[in-house]
Fold:
Amino acid sequence: MKKNWNKQEFKDLTQDIGCDIVGSILYSLGIYTFAKMGDFAPGGLSGLALIINHLWNLPIGIMTLVLNIPFIILSFRVVGKQFMFKTARTMLISTFFLDVIFPYTTVYTGSPFMAALYSGVCIGAGQALFYMRGSSSGGTDFLIMSIKVLRPHLSIGMVTMVIDLIIIFLGWPVFGSVDAVLYGLASSFVTSVAIDKILYGMGAGKLILIITTKGREVSEKIDEISGRGSTIIKGMGSYTKAEKEIILCACSQSQAYSVRSAAHEVDEDAFIMLTETSEVFGEGFIDTKREK
Structure:
């Protein structure tokens, strides 16, 4: 039976493919142009494919696909059909750029350390685009997602780090230099930072909790100085049994100092806590209406 596509489904598919293409170009740029020519292996199966390419000159993209097969078999029931289908499409497009297009492009021949930094930026930006559309570059993502579902109490960050370290340290004997390990570590670190900044950086901010006896005055001062609204919650000190007011104020990174200063200006004894928020939705931050 022929599927009838509505406008939203067509728009989603177009955006998915667009992100796959742009992300694959960035991903291939990081792997082929910088990492391969810098003689180091970043983390993940792409790093392992680079090591195999260095030893036996086998295509990086094809080897990444081959290495993915056991992970696909093991995680098929866990990650779901939609994620699997999107990831398969992403991997095929990435393979095309890695093995067909980029071998004919100009490669970077400068400082290996700069190659490591830009490799991390490009790989991270490419993977962030994949993640934004519910896809991935495959590899250890399958294993990590499976572990997260089957063993949610385990530290996913630790699992990822261990896998990446094993692959990065393999570069030492293969490339014949301890520098290959250092460059691989630098690239992987920059990759994780780039992913976080792209996925969460635009909506990141601070959540400030202020415990005071002058809730309304503090709230008005915050609004006067920074233009930020806040929420006042009634509370009570567990030790003193005194009535307190808890002010919750979400603000940008740059406004955090002015909000804290406003609270202390009104109440020198105010108890203030600042926490990081990866995303803030609502008026003045990410507009959820525009995302629909």
